[in-house]
Amino acid sequence: MPVLTCQNCGARNRVDEGAAAAGKRPVCGACGVKLGAASSGGDAAPVAVTDATFGRDVLEASQARPVLLDFWAAWCGPCRMIAPALDELAAESAGRYRIAKLNVDENPQTASQFGVRSIPMLLIFKGGQIVDRLVGAQPKSVIASRLAAHV
């Protein structure tokens, strides 16, 4: 089950993929605000990706704009270190690119498909293909410049 962070109150919410796929917009359990709403015409926060939603949220989305996919885990210190930078990049995207996150512990199929052996691993997709790869914790400026090369 993907976990979305509420843009209003910051609460973390588990989201039923089946209900979301059926067109039911999930709401925050703490404050009741609809989850996943983008405030700037783009994705204002990283999108939680699962094995089930990878095709739609990454491959299909990368046809229109680059998608940076972060392979991470909750126990990974370097993953937690780069999370604020990815949140900032998502907020600054203005629809030019998408930031997505895939928890490798909860979604081993996609992680295995791309041979993820070390995290954090960042893959940039464009046109449904991998166009760049960064492994390990990187400063925001490095991530931003690599992403900008594909916008």
Distance between the termini: 30 Å
Q: Give Rg in angstroms.
A: 14 Å
Helix content: 25-40%
Largest sheet: 5 strands, mixed
**H-E order:** EEHEHEHEHEEH
Low-confidence stretches: 37-41
> If helices are DSSP runs of H or I spanning 4 or more residues, what is the number of helices?
5
Order of strands side by side in the largest beta sheet?
Answer: 3-5-4-6-7
CATH superfamily of the largest domain: Glutaredoxin
Q: How many structurally independent domains?
A: 2
Summed over residues and divided by their number, the pLDDT gives a mean of 87
* Shape by Cα distribution: globular
How does CATH name the architecture of the largest domain? 3-Layer(aba) Sandwich
CATH topology of the largest domain: Glutaredoxin
Give the class-level CATH name of the largest domain: Alpha Beta
Content-based structural category: alpha/beta
The tally of strands reads 7
Percentage of residues in DSSP E strands: 15-25%
